[in-house]
Amino acid sequence: MAVARGVSLNHISRESSDVTRLANFYKEIFGFEEIEAPNFGDFKVIWLNLPSAFSLHLIERNPATQLPEGPWSATSAAVADPSHLPRGHHICFSVSNFDSFVLSLKEKGIQTFESSVPSRGVKQVFFFDPDGNGLEVASQDTQKQ
């Protein structure tokens, strides 16, 4: 069995009932840049790119599908407190200006939960995007996360 070579993250997709609102959040908070996206006709998409990292594809949610929603918008067992974010449901970014980044989240009224990995000297903050998708931001570390 051959192992994949030259693997890198290409993109992450998120569905939303309001892709414009979600795109604006990722542009404002993380500095994503909007890039040209194909016209799929039946539904709206916005493609964002984080230079030197990966792309985020925001896709208009099909109201007819029964896919699970984010923790905030879930119809049962909703999770609004980032300290209770299910551990397997988040995207993590690393930043070099961790403390000022966390302060900017708080200034925007975004509810956060801070933690750390003491053995690695990494600080973490957890929060949600406007659709309830879990996000983690970690202080940069010289080791891979």
Automatic annotation (TrEMBL):
Pfam families: Glyoxalase
SUPFAM superfamilies listed in its UniProt record: Glyoxalase/Bleomycin resistance protein/Dihydroxybiphenyl dioxygenase
TM region(s), chain numbering: none
UniProt domain VOC: residue ranges: 8-140
Protein name: VOC domain-containing protein
Source organism (scientific name): Ficus carica
